Amino acid sequence: MQNFSKLLLTVRTALELEVFRRTEATVYAGADRMDRPVRWVHAGEIPDIHRFLTGGEMLLTAGLGMGTGGEEQRAFVRRIAAAGAAVLVVELAGRAFSEMPPAAVSEAEALGLPLVGLRDEIPFVEASAQVHEMLMDLRMSEVIAEEATGQAFLDLLLAGEDYVAMTAELANRTGHPVVLEDVTHQIVAYAGRTDDSDEVVADWAAHSRAAHERHVTSHDRARPAPRTPPGRFRDVAPCARRAVVLRGESWGALHLLHGAVPPAPADLSALERAATAVAITLLGERESGARSAKRHGALLNRLMLGDISGEEFLARALMLGADLRDRPLVVAVTAPDTATGTFTDQDLRALLRASELPCVVADLEDHGIAVVGVAPGRSDRDLGDLLAGRGVRGGLSRVVAPAQLSAAVRQARTASAAARMGDADRPLRFDEVGVLRLLVALAEGPELARYVEDELGPLLRHDATAAGPLLPTLRAFLDCGGNKSKAAELLYVQRRTLYYRLDRIAALTGMPLDDVETQQRLGLAVRGHDLLRRDARGSAGGARR
């Protein structure tokens, strides 16, 4: 394994050179910053030496320009730190100081600037020469390593290897864990795993979707640092990230999880080459016919994740050949099966285009999703009729403007879930969901089942063993708005029989059925019970299939 971090000259390794071993070197401040990279050496004895620094230097001085007073010394250290010097090395051989000034020590410690004192004089020219020679050697090694890295990825491409092999090669060459994700932030490949990286991967959404919005990554150092984020994001593992770009479109990203160890330039170079190699491996898939589907999927995912606004979505859709401008917009979520067979995203796209409805369509795991531009003056009802004619089930949003597209996606998904749980045989419009919207959300957890049990438990236990169940009577009574005469007609029973059954229900539930609030409570419980039963039947049917 080629560990590129060894190709980096740090403050620590520079002080191990022969010229510094001739004397005693003491670290007075910044002991935790000794792994800072050194890119050059500068020596000087003037107070404004900072003007000649550009960052990353080892500054050698006898201290003649530091001043004799504490405030002067503090100001000198502040200027050196602000200039980005890697380390300040001061001779303590008596020319200016025999001991390190306490003011300089405290200021350097406060600023995180490594401050090193040398007990004896050393030839600064020799120090510069040895450091520069080491830098040249490391640069040559880096160039050779970069060439070897490029050749390694080229060999993998020529051998027909896929993106998984590219990810593994990057992890092997850098010594860091590597994650390849697609545009939906789903992990596609993961190599070089460690215990620490496993923890990051276990909560990948926090790292990929949220942390990168709150942290400056290794390739973004030029950007201003964001505010310190709250909570868990303080401890997110740092990483370098490179986009995987295919023909100008973002497919995903490669993450190099370097943790507390800063990535060497060769690490970042390898990351760049790996991202390019991954893109090349994916091009074959796109040429085989998946290009359009992936582009539509990427665009819809960006809309759902909030990466782009509705207006930006329309502009990008136009580039894909879908002109949604100046049209009412409806989002449709469709189930993959119909009464006559399967219904894929390709089928949905073909149906909409045959009807001259511009659309962006994608297949998202267990359902299809489409943003459709309906004809002016048309509505979601018309789109529902079109889909129902093909036996399509699912959900439809309200008609919205571009700014409300993200909300429309949520509406369509909610309507689709309600349609699935309610056994609807056609797309359900969001405005038809009603209170079912709340029950659908509750059904995703245990709360709805608990509510049903609390409200109807005794009645359900009675019906489980009784020859004449009472739940149908309660449902009819509630459907008739508490009108006993209508309920009796609906059930084809005498009113006396209905009264008897209602008395039994009231005794079992412990609630007066003539009370409006009680009817509302029981109405929700009955609908919730029906939803849970239908959901259970759907799950069992899916398991059988």
Walk me through this protein's architecture.
The protein is α/β, with parallel strands linked by helices. The chain has four domains: 4-134, Udp-n-acetylmuramoylalanyl-d-glutamate--2,6- Diaminopimelate Ligase, Chain: A, domain 1, CATH 3.40.1390; 160-225 and 233-289, Beta-Lactamase (2-Layer Sandwich), CATH 3.30.450.40; 313-434, Alpha-Beta Plaits (2-Layer Sandwich); 443-544, Arc Repressor Mutant, subunit A, CATH 1.10.10.2840. Helix content is 49%, strand content 14%. It is built from 18 helices and 16 strands. The strands form four sheets. Strands 1-5-4-3-2 form a five-stranded mixed beta sheet. Strand 13 and strand 14 form a beta hairpin. Helix 13 packs across helix 18 and helix 14 (447-465) crosses helix 18 (516-544). It is elongated, with a radius of gyration of 35 Å. The two termini are 47 Å apart.
Q: What's the CATH architecture of the largest domain?
A: 3-Layer(aba) Sandwich
Task: Tally the beta strands.
Answer: 16
Strand content: 5-15%
Main pleated-sheet profile: 5 strands, mixed
- The residue-averaged pLDDT reads 81
CA-based shape: elongated
Query: How many structural domains?
Result: 4
Biggest sheet, strands in spatial order? 1-5-4-3-2
* CATH topology annotation of the largest domain: Udp-n-acetylmuramoylalanyl-d-glutamate--2,6- Diaminopimelate Ligase, Chain: A, domain 1
First-last Cα distance? 47 Å
Report the top-level CATH class of the largest domain: Alpha Beta
Estimated helix fraction: 40-55%
CATH superfamily heading of the largest domain = HprK N-terminal domain-like
Judged by helices, strands and strand pairing, the structural class is: alpha/beta
Low-confidence segments: 1-5, 213-235, 538-545
Which value, in Å, is the CA radius of gyration? Answer: 35 Å
Helix run count: 18
